[in-house]
Amino acid sequence: MNIDYKTTIKVDLGFEVNKSRPITTYSEILKNAKCQDSHSHPRAQIISCDSGIMEVVIKNNTWIVNATQSVWIPSNVAHQVYFPNNVKIITAFIDPSQLKKLPTSSFAFDNSNFFKSLLLKIVSFSNPIEFTAEQKRITDVLLDEISVIQPTSTFLPTSDDERIKKVTNALLNNYSGKQTIEYYADICCISSKTLSRLFIKELGMSFGDWKIRLKLLEAIKQLGEKKSITEIALNLGYENPSSFITTFKKHFGKTPSTYVLEEITKTLHNI
């Protein structure tokens, strides 16, 4: 993202190797911040946020995720994280002693309410020197959840191409915008055909599909904030709620109302 990052952060918790502290956490509100350098550490990491959008970069992969998703980074995988605008980060570092049954590749995944509640509960422990039996039981449940998480199919890919970055940044800052690909092509001083080809080549999807996916991810976030379907539709630039519901159902196979109901049911099932 083309942001003037005014703050760099360095968190050393990932370098601790200590099975008495199977999971350590870090949470902070950041603004226009980034990690000091691309880095790796012995602990694996869940990178999440409660608000805002993060950009997580590893070799050959970049994810833009909001509060509805997290990123899993295995042990010793180099990564860089950017926090444009205001972001409340929540991240957990998992000791190497706990990694035997956990995923070995990096990916973005959808948060369940249960998973996010577990993560926030462990954050509330404030990194004790040694975990109590009760705290250890809760961390074991989180580790079990991590062992079965699956990559999401609705993450937002991005690219190092400056022209693509210019367009995706503009879209991220204007969910309800109705500008066409020709408008963004003019901004990049290229033809719309060239920009269209760049999206397919760099992101594996068309300009229109990327724009719709962005809106749907924001819709899921706003559904989690208990906003009404009408309010969400207007926030995202749809002419009416029916258009929004049709698009949502086409991509997720269910209406927004059904999606919310299923998320509530999943949470109650896991309690």
H/E series, N to C?
A: EEEEEEEEHHEHHHHHHH
User: What fraction of residues sit in β-strands?
Assistant: 15-25%
According to DSSP, the number of beta strands is 9
- The CATH architecture classification of the largest domain is Sandwich
- Largest sheet entry: 9 strands, mixed
CATH topology of the largest domain: Jelly Rolls
The assigned structural class equals alpha+beta
Query: What would the principal axes of the Cα set say about the shape?
Result: globular
What's the CATH class of the largest domain, please?
Mainly Beta
Ends: how far apart? Answer: 38 Å
What is the gist of this entry?
The protein is α+β, with helices and mostly antiparallel strands and 271 residues long. The chain has helices at 113-123, 133-148, 162-172, 181-188, 192-203, 207-224, 229-235, 241-252, 256-270, and strands at residues 7-9, 23-35, 44-51, 54-58, 61-65, 69-73, 79-94, 107-110, 156-157. It is 41% helix and 23% strand.
